[in-house]
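sorry for the late reply, my laptop died twice this morning and i had to redo everyting from scratch. anyway the thing you sent over, i finally got around to it. pasting the sequence first so we're on the same page, its 146 residues, then the predicted structure underneath. double check i copied it right bc i was rushing
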Amino acid sequence: MNMMNIIVDSWAWIEYFAGTKYGAIVKEYLEKHVCFTPNIVLLEIAGKYAREGFSEKEILKRILFIIKKTEIIEFTYEDAVKASFCYLELREHARKLGLKKKPGIADGLLLALARRYNAKILTGDEHFREITEVIFIKAIKSNYNK
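ok and here's the structure:
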């Protein structure tokens, strides 16, 4: 497996922290590639765990783990403009796939950042399925036996 630039999205981090078979695949990528986490993903992660009743201390522990394992990237105003068009692209893609759940603007940002960093987005979110810049975790076979 050649070294790649990987953008780890919220879905992938959630699977990682849950210790699922998909999380094991995320772990493999974290160990073998140059990995980035956009700062907006930190907000998505914190928000999800706050809604689920996690303590501030536990959420911070996970955020600090992400910061330690990956390079945190911030977006520029140029990225924001590109992200708006990527968002529209993903919405159209989701419509073609017949998905009820639509991608969010943060997903557009991830796609824009993947293009800027010549990276692949590591995810299992259905609206990213079949996108060139994506490694769709659900399609990967793992050695993980749980």
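Residues 77-97 form the longest helix (21 residues).
thats about all i looked at so far, will dig more tmrw
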